[in-house]
UniProtKB/TrEMBL annotation:
The gene is CORO1C. Transmembrane segments: none annotated. The lineage of its organism: Eukaryota, Metazoa, Chordata, Craniata, Vertebrata. Residues 4-68 form the DUF1899 domain. The keyword Repeat applies. It comes from Oncorhynchus kisutch (Coho salmon). This is Coronin. Belongs to the WD repeat coronin family. One of its GO terms (molecular function) is actin filament binding.
Amino acid sequence: MFRRVVRASKFRHVFGQALKNDQCYDDIRVSRVTWDSSFCAVNPKFVAIIIEASGGGAFLVLPLNKSGRIDKAYPTVCGHTGPVLDIDWCPHNDQVIASGSEDCTVMVWQIPENGLVTGLSEPVVVLEGHSKRVGIITWHPTARNVLLSAGCDNLIIIWNVGTGEAMIQLEDMHPDVIFSACWNRNGSLICTACKDKTIRVIDPRKEEIVGEKEKAHEGARPMRAIFLSDGNVFTTGFSRMSERQLALWNPQAMDEAISVHEMDTSNGVLLPFYDPDTNVVYLCGKGDSSIRYFEITDEAPFVHYLNTFTTKEPQRGMGYMPKRGLDVNKCEIAR
């Protein structure tokens, strides 16, 4: 009877490495809005960062090859009349980025090939339909020109960006503020986390809830929910003792969690970034100075702690590079 003591995994020895100073950006005044979004979005060409801006909202778009000190006069994307709360690069076009703002609008921008030379204040399209600030935006993973936005009016709108029209409005599904919204791998379902402590799985085309779990995490602080590539839902939240938790759910049977992990007692919301190719989830908390990562497998306990990357500086925002932007020759699996 030979018992395997150590679980076989390709990712046990994954480690994090910070870039050297000459490859970093300097002098960026990151937004101080009290909204739990990631403040940063990245693709293989650009990094976009929401910044402090007087009289409206703005974000920077910097080419990845132009690092160093960023001049105060560097051109911004500045069409919103209120602070920008969330930004997201289009997965099908590296020059297109969408932004949601406190001014109740969503704007879609076309960034020039080599980055901005002058300030950009004219969006390609303005999407108007929310009555309160828009805190969440996320592009459809497989269909082009489809964008989801969620506002503090507890409304989810799915837009056709090509025509600027709202295709689907999901109202009366969320009684309170929506904390997170995520498409599944092929974009047929969305999962949401709401302030009423409920995780919902929604079929947007039928406009119906196909699975929900009340009190997924007992704590009152914000939750996050994301889809994994096998269709399960991964959530982060807080226990009643305000310990940070993560949990794994099967949308077909939401009564019991597949797995729940207690982490630590910090009050920053854990933002999950998931890599469908390796099944690794990276958890970053605002105000933390660490990034924890876990591997998700089919064998108990299903969520396996791998390692923690720690730095001296607490992080204010995070962006997750798509696989196309990684240097695979250096065995880089995430950035």
